[in-house]
Amino acid sequence: MPSIAEKQENQKQVLTVNELSKRKVVEHNALIQSVAKMQKTALKMFELAVSCIDTENLPENNTVFLSKTELFKFFEVASNSKHTQFKEAIEIMQKQAYFKIKSNKKLGIEYESIVPIPYVKWNDYNDEVTIQFSEHIMPYLINLKSEFTQYKISELQKLNSKYSIILYRWLSMNYNQYEHYSVKGGRRAEQVESYRNPSISVKELREITDTVNEYKEIYDFEKRVLKNAIEEINEHTSFNVSYEKIKKGRSIDSIVFHIEKKRTAEDNSYKLEDQAYIEGKKAKEETEKDLYTEAMQSP
Length: 299
Hints:
Layout: H1 4-11, E1 14-15, H2 17-20, E2 24-28, H3 29-32, E3 35-37, H4 40-51, E4 63-67, H5 68-74, H6 82-96, E5 98-105, E6 108-114, E7 119-121, E8 128-132, E9 148-152, H7 162-184, H8 189-196, E10 199-201, H9 202-208, H10 218-236, E11 239-248, E12 251-261, H11 268-297
Parallel strand pairs: 1-4
Antiparallel strand pairs: 2-9, 3-5, 4-8, 5-6, 7-8, 10-12, 11-12
């Protein structure tokens, strides 16, 4: 009869990059709109760990398991110092990285500061990395019935800027709503379109990118935060994004983004759009045919 330790060992699922390519990150929108007080590597590691959560089979003790080898592949680390880099990244993530989350409650706005991954374990004699989430971050990752965003973890793999990752998550939040209400209804046409063309004030954009005290000049902010992020997103993800600056007086007050989804063979939304176009064209041709017939039959 297997021991308890053996049973626990058998229940572990150490994920590989091939498996991760099929997995999605699912997060509450409050977390998407929070301030990520961390650098690129820590943020990507958090997102990677979140993609390992099976929402239909929740992790015991808020713990997931990653393969060290595959983790290096995900980060495309090939140097001899990769283990040292990994150790440093873990230490920085635990000592400095946290989310500042703002939520609207009945009595007012509530603020939380959460270290998302307080415990990580690895060793020199096997390939496993144990990652345990904070109990305080879990409500933003599981049992989400509404106001959540999901996307493939593979979308983030090639993004090399913290700002690219933050902006991609925010754009995904909006585009997810566009896709949802386009199919389910429940919003006016102009509201649905606003999700595909979302607007955000420069003040709020600075807050979520954690640049309130950086790049004070709008020229520097646009060059270092906005333009570089959009270029990376367009090159490495399924989005094509453009933006326009909206002035209030002489100052740039807000940014309006325009999001398009790249066509892919497995993207059913394009099949639906194509089918709608075909049916619309067919209906138009039949109408024109009927009008022509009526005209020919009239005296």
